[in-house]
Amino acid sequence: MWERGSLRTIAIAGGVLLVAFLLMPDSSFPKPRDHASLIELLKNQQKEEAPLYAFNPFEDVVDNDARSFGPGFFNQHPKLLRNIRRDLGPGDIEWRLENSRQRLLFVPERRAKMARLFGDYCGHVIDYTLQKTGLENPYVRIVTLAEENPAIPATGVTVFLVHNLAEEVKGTYVFSSPGRNPLKIDLSRKTFLGEVGSYTTNILLRGEGQPEFTWDRYTIWQTTARNPFTVLTVPVEETLHIAVREQTHRAIREQFEANPSKNAEGLEEIVEDWMAVEEALVGGVLHALLPGFLKRHAANLPDSSIEEDLESRSHFGQYRHLRKAIEVVEDLGYEEALRMYEDYPRNFKDLVI
Ligand SMILES: [Zn+2]
Questions:
Q1: What is the pLDDT of residues 78-111, one digit of tens each?
Q2: How many separate domains does the chain show?
Q3: Ligand 1 mean position to 292 CA, how many Å?
């Protein structure tokens, strides 16, 4: 009898413990707080370019000019042009781009250890970022992507972790000459994007109207880059981009309204301008938060990797205010910088440009 009672007691205690465990917030699950093994994997890895899976179905490209890669291709393939000339006979040949479509492709992260260690790091560093800044958690899920065309929840933001990311663009070119049947040629181009993380807003301008903003319900993060620090910045950087994007939209809209020329070119310039300011804020806050975190939890990361990351970003226009912003955020403090961007994004802009 006594034995049985004791067993029951144990069973109940177990049940209580289990319930308590499940009720605890996700972040209090015991997870590794040291990321040395991840750093070693990041230092010694090779970027794979296969197998390539589809992330989404082909979609029509709105901006055909930017995606029209045919002329360059045809110029580099004179034999193909000679064949077209032969089929269409003498006389003027005209060509046009009939349509172009694009989709994203990804190489899955198939190393189970890498997926686990990077997933743990993301959870840890996102918790830290949210706790330091008081920002809300925008994520509904972090998924190591293994299947094609994943479903994307309609609310919140889903993070997809992949090994490598590419874009495929398909164009149909039509060649014609008077009195002959036109020739159709399909071209496809795959480009590895080299962006370790991104969070996209689509801005649509109809005629004389106001710009309309829609944004993706997902962000794709790569587990590979030449510099380990670059990979480690992604969860912090994208979390900050997502958190401040609404202020950026507002700033763009206000400047567009104040602008005398309300056309697409004017809008493009304003968007480009503000994306660089947002990068500056995000980079400034990141540099106030992340190096200290990594010193404590990833001591085997070489110090030089931080400067190397800044140096490689300096070749891209979108990071043109980054170094200045790191100083500005250091002076202001990251909390004040975020507050200023939320209340008066123009003031922050004036400080960094
Ligand atoms: Zn960024």
A1: 888 888 888 888 888 888 888 889 999 999 999 9
A2: 1
A3: 19
